[in-house]
Amino acid sequence: MRCGCRAPFESLHGQFHLVEVTELLVRSVGEPADQFDLRGSDAVHLASLQAAADPDVVLSAVAQGLPVAAAPIGIAVANLHSSS
Predict the structure, then answer these.
(1) Helix and strand totals (H; E) in the chain
(2) Cα(18)–Cα(15) distance, rounded to whole angstroms?
């Protein structure tokens, strides 16, 4: 089943903030991965958001666990799911 998320993702692409995945960043993902039961890639995504340290950053994700983990640490979340 397709989620229909590609078009919204593509429309936001020019607004993305790219963060380099360094060894330090990868080593920082263990605790949030355990705390929120995140997959490895989602934990790296969350750590990248924290590394960006930009109050204007908004998380765009289809995974359900990642927005749940981002909200308590003050990261805004974009809803990419259509309401129809």
Answers:
(1) 5, 2
(2) 10
Residue pair 21/13 in contact (Cβ under 8 Å)? The answer is no
The string over 59-81, giving b where at least 16 C-beta atoms fall within 10 Å of a residue's C-beta and e elsewhere, is bbbeeebbbebbeeeebeeeebe
Between 59 and 37, the more confident residue is 37
Rounded-to-integer distance, Cα 51 and Cα 25, Å: 8
Angstrom distance (rounded) from CA 79 to CA 6: 13
Q: How confident is the model at residue 73 (pLDDT cuts 50, 70, 90)?
A: confident
- Token digits of residue 53: 């340290």
pTM of the model as a whole: 0.66
- Element of type H or E holding 78: strand 76-78
Q: Which residues pair with 20 in a beta bridge?
A: none
User: What 8-state DSSP symbol labels residue 59?
Assistant: E
15 pLDDT above the threshold of 80: no
